[in-house]
Amino acid sequence: VDLKFQYVKSGTNNPIKVSKFALTIYDIDHQNPDKAEIVKVCGVDGVSTHPKTSVKEIDAGPGCKGFKSTETAGSENNPNDPSVRLTKEQKQNSASFYFDGPISTFKVTMAVDGPVKESGRNFMFAGVPAIPCL
Fold first, then answer.
1. Partners of 18 in the β-ladder
2. Residue 50 predicted with pLDDT over 70
3. Is residue 84 within 8 Å of residue 90, measured between CB atoms?
4. What is the DSSP string of the chain?
5. What is the pLDDT of residues 52-99, one digit of tens each?
6. Closest Cα to residue 27, out of 37, 17, 35?
7. CB 48 within 8 A of CB 131
8. In what order do the strands lie in the sheet with 36-42?
């Protein structure tokens, strides 16, 4: 799925520009090795992952950063609340994207690399940094 995030003035559809914000994508893992999750974020200025990350950086194109899952896991390791302290495993399966701005829009692609039949995959994200910017 391709998503366009846009900041707008409250109560309107008028774009506004913001500076210095983060987007963290959590739970980048897979249930089956031939169905890896892929995340790409465009318009980003930096990215941080855990020092012992379980996500692999991939070529996402100019101005973009991307990651692909390398670990098999189920729902038992999913974070419930980004404001609560994450476990080491949850941090290892996450990536925090940083924007210096000012910008009003950015794009995110979330996909599964491989066949998806009867079930899909959940993607979790929040506007907070889970991994400090290095």
1. 103
2. yes
3. no
4. -EEEEE-B-TTS--B--B-SEEEEEE---BSSTTSEEEEEEES-SEEE--TT-SEEEE---TTEEEEEE--B--GGG--S-TTSPPPHHHHHT-EEEEE-S-BSEEEEEEEEES---S-----EEESS-SS---
5. 999 999 999 999 999 999 988 777 777 877 767 888 898 899 999 999
6. 37
7. yes
8. 2-6, 105-113, 36-42, 64-69, 55-58
Q: Is 31 exposed, middle or buried (0-12, 13-18, 19+ CB in 10 A)?
A: middle
In degrees, to the nearest 5, what angle opens at C-alpha 42 toward C-alphas 85 and 63? 120
Contact 130, 82 (CB under 8 A): yes
Average of per-residue pLDDT across 9-27: 94
- CB count in 10 Å sphere of residue 63: 12
Q: pTM of the prediction? A: 0.89
Q: Report pLDDT for 17.
A: 96
CA distance 44 to 40: 10
